[in-house]
Structures are given as C-alpha cells and as structure tokens.
Amino acid sequence: MKKIIIIGATSGIGRELARIYAGEGHLVGVTGRRHDLLYSLQLEFPNHIITECFDVTSPQSITHLQSLIEKMDGLDMLIYNAGYGDVSDVLDWKIDKETVDVNVNGFIAITHFTFQYFVINGGGQLATTSSIASIRGNSHAPAYSASKAFQSIYFEGLHMKAKKAGWPVYISDIQPGFVDTKMAKGEKRFWVSPPEKAARQIVEALRKRRWRVYITRRWWLVAKLAKWMPGSVYHRIG
Ligand SMILES: NC(=O)c1ccc[n+]([C@@H]2O[C@H](COP(=O)([O-])OP(=O)(O)OC[C@H]3O[C@@H](n4cnc5c(N)ncnc54)[C@H](OP(=O)(O)O)[C@@H]3O)[C@@H](O)[C@H]2O)c1
Fold it and tell me: Which fold does the domain 3-237 belong to in CATH?
C-alpha cells in the first residue's frame, strides 16, 4: 500500500486519480477548496481516503500539507494537479493573476517542499499535471501556457538534479491534451478524452516512473508538431 497525496482532487482528472488509487487499496490524501466534494470522496472509500481542505494560494498551504502527511503517517508520492486557467482574450488581470497564483506560486511552494521531504526521508515520486499548452505561447490564454511551461521546465530541472545526485526521487511531468472537464476551454477542441481514461493512462505512466508523458498518448504527435513548427506558421494558429 502506497501513501499518495493528490493536490486538487475534488473534480476532473484528480478525482478520477484518487478513485483509481483508493480502489487499488492505497491510502490517498486528497485536497481542494470544496469541502463537500472531498467529503463525498471519503464516503466512497472510507478506509482509503484522507482529506485536507485548503487553497494552494494560501500562506498556510505548507502547514496543511504537513498536517496531511502526519495524518497519513508518511508519503510515497505527491501529484500536483490543482490548476486554474481561463480564456483571457482582452488580457484580463484577474485571470492572469489567479493563473500564476495557482499554477506557479502554489505549485512551487508545494513541490519544492515535497522534493526536499523526499530527499530527507529516503525518496519518493513527485508528479505534476502540466499541459500540452506548456510547449508554445498561446494568444487566447497567454498566462496559462506560460504557467504550465514553468511547471514543465522546473520539473525537468528537478528530474536532472535528482538523477545527478543519485537521489531516489522520481519526477514526472504529465502533459494532457484536451480532457473533458470544466478546464477544457475553446471551441476547436479535438481528441477530447474522458477524465477516467486520462487518469488510467496517468496511473500507468507513473507506475513506470516515466519522466514526461502525453495524455492521451496520441498527443505526443501534437507535442512534436507544436515544438518544431516555425513561428511564421504557428503564430497564425496558436
Ligand atoms: N482538462 C483539460 O483539458 C486539461 C488539459 C491540460 C492540463 N490540464 C490540467 O489538469 C489539471 C486538472 O484539471 P481538470 O481538467 O481535472 O480540471 P478541474 O476539474 O477544474 O480540476 C481542478 C482541480 O484543481 C483544484 N484547484 C483549483 N484551484 C485551486 C486552489 N486555489 N486551491 C486548491 N485547489 C485548487 C480544484 O479544486 P477546488 O476547486 O475544490 O479548489 C480541482 O480539484 C489542471 O492542472 C489543469 O491545468 C487539464
């Protein structure tokens, strides 16, 4: 039985991940701001779900995380899945600020703490749900793609740091394309995956300790195309 924390497990991908891990008999710590949704998850798996209700942007986020680790009596894996993003066509400051607060500041506070925790406590696995949007700029949600690029690049650095030092800390950058949740915005959506399928593929990739993974797998192709497309073409469509 592993001890797994999912930051942002009240809905969508995170909730499905929690269901899979709890169903497999692991002890799963789930977080989010919506207490009723955390509670209903706990009712589904009373012996396998432990809850901690908090906002990742709050200055007390690490105190909450420590309290959850204490309640679980340890930690083997943490997935930073909390995320915010919205279309910001007129460059809305409220949207851009919240995006950076959740996807950058909340993210780095929690993953930095967890990386150090694993180094001190004999190892562990640390994953983030970034996005395929991390690969290039995006005119519709510029802060969102930039914040996800931050997550991806930070995790590549942590992956290299752990490898070079020989620390048993395994880093995974999960890059979903479109998944059918309220986060999936835009009119031109394609290859939209149900959250259950996305979560199953994530669990499989984490079992193999893959350091970067595209969800669903076929999004690998879009990632490669986006990465190598010349600006003269990409800037007209992105
Ligand atoms: N859906 C897609 O197409 C897609 C594509 C690429 C990447 N992603 C990424 O996948 C992750 C999961 O998103 P989803 O699609 O499953 O959407 P979702 O259903 O909206 O889930 C977002 C989760 O983040 C939590 N969260 C948001 N702001 C928070 C805050 N300030 N404090 C604490 N928790 C917060 C939410 O919990 P509360 O609201 O209860 O706080 C919720 O559990 C996100 O990081 C997203 O960027 C999604």
Answer: Rossmann fold (3.40.50)
Q: What pLDDT is stored for residue 89 in this prediction?
A: 85
Query: 0.85 exceeded by the pTM?
Result: yes
Rounded Cα distance, 64 and 89, in Å: 35
Residue 185 Cβ inside 6 Å of ligand 1? The answer reads no
- Residue whose token pair is 């809305």: 92
Burial per residue of 177-212, b for 16 or more beta-carbon CB atoms within 10 angstroms, e otherwise: bbbbbebbeeeeeeeebebeebbbbbeebbeeebbb
- Cα(82) to ligand 1 centroid in Å equals 4
Domain ranges of the chain: 3-237
Strands 3-7 and 212-215, by their bridges, are unpaired
* CB of residue 99 inside a 6 A radius of ligand 1: no
Pocket test for ligand 1, best of 5, 7, 13 (most atoms within 8 A of CB): 13
